[in-house]
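Worked Example 4.2. Read the sequence first, then its structure tokens.
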Amino acid sequence: MIEVERVDFVAVPVRDLARADAFYGETLGLERSANSGERWVEYETGNLTLALLSPEAMGPDFEPQPNTGPIALRVPDVEAAREKLREAGVEFQGEVIDSGVCHIAGFTDPDGNSLILHRRYAP
């Protein structure tokens, strides 16, 4: 077996890098990394980097992955964050769900990649 120290980044395939950059940076308010380049944009989330990659960076078969596990964005209050994003034009897939251990609210980025707002009951 190998020794994995941590996950450094998650690649997020996007069709329009400028549009995705605006969504993740302006709409979601994530911190843009200085490591961003011409064919990709990186956002820091505290413990993981989201790397937005254009098809030009990875090849023509690189497509959004709406049916894979969503990227869970930890927020202090799922309902409040959901309302702010809804007011900014983000469409959610139903109401906030109480799983019994956490609250979640699902949505997608402009390319159809799955995301959720998430907060466990206990930190």
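Now turn to a second chain, presented in exactly the same format:
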Amino acid sequence: MSSDNIQIHVLVSGIVQGVFFRTETQKTAKANNVTGWVKNLDDGSVEAVIEGKKENVNNVVDWCHKGSPAAFVSNVKATEQSALSNFDGFKIQ
């Protein structure tokens, strides 16, 4: 990844576990050629770090506001961080 990449840390709350949210996030990330990871948190929310070209990252963050078909997203908190370029693909943790 090049140095003009951005990295966004995302916290998604609502009905986002048990509804294929992580799998669909991974598919969306791969379709947008970004790297990072997504995982469930103990409080029922989903956390992700998405890195890549700004437009591509924003596409995935925008998708997070909608989520998978069975999801109900009540809140998305997206925070830009320093891009590290140390991810190998986009993983589900």
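Notes for the reader: The beta strands are 6-15, 35-40, 46-52, 72-81, 90-92. The CA atoms of residues 33 and 56 lie 7 Å apart.
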